[in-house]
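Lab notebook, bench 4. Still working through the backlog of constructs that have no structural model yet. Next entry is a single chain of 308 residues. Request: give me the structure tokens for it.
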Amino acid sequence: MAGDTLTTESYIKHHLTNMTYGKLPEGYVRESYDGTTETLTQDTWTLAHNDVEMKDMGFMAVHVDSMFWSITLGLIFAFIFRKVAVGMHSGVPKGLQNFIEMIIDFIDTNVKDTFHYKNPLVAPLALTIFIWIFFMNLMDLIPVDWIPELMMWATGDPHFFFKVVPTTDPNITLGMAFTVFFLMIYFSIKEKGLMGFVKELTLHPFHAGKWYVDIFLIPVNFILESVSLIAKPISLGLRLFGNLYAGEMIFILIAAMFGAGLFLGVLAGFLQLGWAIFHILVIALQAFVFMVLTIVYMAMAHDVDEEH
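Model written out:
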């Protein structure tokens, strides 16, 4: 990347910052990358120039790069699978059809081994989660400077923010995790009834069977079970985010070595290749873990006899 315009610290910070779109209030003083300032004459929706503006944009700000890549990769996933489905035949599968069938068989086996109930949503949900997350994680193997450099050249802004790995954004990973969580709550209430769901939160793990004892145990049970319930989507989302963020950070640190002399540049090349090969395992494993835990949570939601 542009080593002449960015220090190592600013280089790393730049690569870990999302392109953010949000609203700045009237009278806000903006400072551009070249040091010039501008005072807004009205409330303005715009792209942030720096991390201060990103913070000032507040909760309603949108990470444009994360949204773009996650939606684009989802559409690519849908296009590939639809193309194979339309051209499916009963003969011996070859090429892409064979590969897709292997993936579907793999997902189907995992669902059957873990989910022993009837719900036509679970297998497609597991397939979508696995492939979509895998595609998003796979973006981590693109050299960290290629796309940001291209975007900075296209815009003429040497500090243009553009991250390409959606799963390094907690908004994406937690968004997916809480979607799974809401499905879990929905099916828990649907299968067990509202009172059955309430009993899970209030009569476990401590249950004496006598109302005058349970009345004191219910608040304790509710606190313990609520914390356990809320921890599921948070841990699910943060696990994926943490692993991919750490992997991206290592790629960035290795890339920063390229401008530090010939020896370190050559060493960085070998390190980047080695980490990329190892990271392929991380990419697939994290997609698999997210999928398996989703299936487990769906099974828990359908198990009316589950004891905590």
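Notes after review: The beta strands are 20-24, 29-31, 37-39, 44-47, 62-63. Residues 175 and 255 are 30 Å apart (CA to CA). Flag for follow-up if needed.
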